[in-house]
Amino acid sequence: MKGSIGLCFSLSALAGVAQATWTKWKDVEYLFVFGDSYTQTGFNINGTQPSPSNPMGNPPYPGWTSSNGPNWVDFLTYTYNASRLQTYNLAYGGATVDAALVTPYAPTVLSLKNQVQDLYLPKYAKAPFTSKWNGDNSLFLFWIGINDVGNSWWLNNGTLYDEIFRVYGDLVDSIYDSGARNFVFLTVPPVNLAPLTLASGEWSVENEGLVIADWNKRVKGMAEGLVKGKSGVKTWVHDTWKVFNDVIKDPKAFEQTQGLKNVMGFCKAYSNGAPTWYTKDASCAYAVNEYFWLNDLHPTFPVHNATAADIVALLGKE
C-alpha cells in the first residue's frame, strides 16, 4: 500500500498555546462520524448503543451502506482499529452541509447541520456520554461535500461556498465546545470521474473537477483555521481525492484495490446492491467487488477499504 497522503496541523509550533491532546491511534476509544451515503451505516441514536463488545451498536455489521459491503467507517472500526473502538456514526445518505443552502434529494435527509445540532449535541455532548469520552480518547471524522458539489457545481458560485463553509466551520466549533479536540476531515473524491458525470461529457468532467478542487482547498483552510483559533486542537486533512484518483489510474496502487478490473463503469445488475459482497451476475463482465463503482456514483467496498487503511496510515497506527 502506498504511504498516507494528507496534511496534519497542530498547535505544537505555536508558543504559549496548549498542546494538542492527541497521543496515538491506539489510544482512541471513541469515534464520532458525520457525513453522507459514503459514510452512513444506518445507526439509530435511539437504538442499541456502541460498546466494546458491539463497537457500532446498531444495525448489525456492516450496516446499511452504499458500498455493497463494509464502508470506510466499518473498516476503521473492525479492521484497522488499534483498540476497542466505539463508533457513533451519525451520517445520513444524501446529506449536504445545510439543506437551506444546497437542497438534498429529499426533505427527510438529515444534513450535517441536523447531524450535529439534532443528534450529536443533544445526545452525546452532555452527561452521561461526556463522562465516557474526552478530548484525549476521541476522534471526530467528517466526510461531507459530495452532494454539496454534485447538487450545485454548475453554479460555480464562490459566494455559495463561502456561506457553506461558514456553516461548516460553526458546526465544527460547536463540537469543539463540547470537548472534542481531534478532528479528521476527508476531502471530496474525484466524483467527476464517476459514471454519473462521465455520461455528461468532457465539459462536465472538467468543470466539476475545478469545483471539487475549490472545495478541497477550503477544507484544508478550515482545518488550518481551526488549529490556529482553538486551544489544544489537532486536525488531519485526508486526501481522499488522491486515493480515489490513484486507484482509478492504477488499481494496484493499493493492496486493497488490486483486484479491481473496471474503474470507469458499473454493471446495472449491481447498482442497488448484490446478494453477497462477491456476487458474479451472469449479465456482468466481473463480480461486483471487481468494479470500482457499484452504480453511477458510489464506490464498492474495496475502495472504502483502501480509504480506511490510508486514514490510519495518516494517523499513525501505533
Largest sheet: 6 strands, mixed
Number of helices in the DSSP assignment:
8
Average pLDDT: 92
Radius of gyration: 19 Å
Supply the CATH architecture.
3-Layer(aba) Sandwich
At the fourth level of CATH, the homologous superfamily is SGNH hydrolase
- Content-based structural category: alpha/beta
The ordered H/E elements are: EEHEHEHHEHHEHH
Quickly name the level 1 CATH class.
Alpha Beta
Q: How many domains, in number, for the residues? A: 1
Shape, principal axes of CA atoms: globular
Detailed description of the structure:
The chain has one domain (6-255, 301-315): 3-Layer(aba) Sandwich (Rossmann fold). It has eight helices and six strands; from the N terminus they run E-E-H-E-H-E-H-H-E-H-H-E-H-H. It has helices at residues 72-78, 112-124, 146-150, 158-177, 195-198, 202-229, 240-249, 301-315, and strands at residues 6-10, 30-35, 86-89, 138-143, 182-186, 234-238. It has a six-stranded mixed sheet with strand order 1-6-5-4-2-3, with helices on both faces. Helix 1 links the parallel strand 2 and strand 3. The two termini are 17 Å apart.
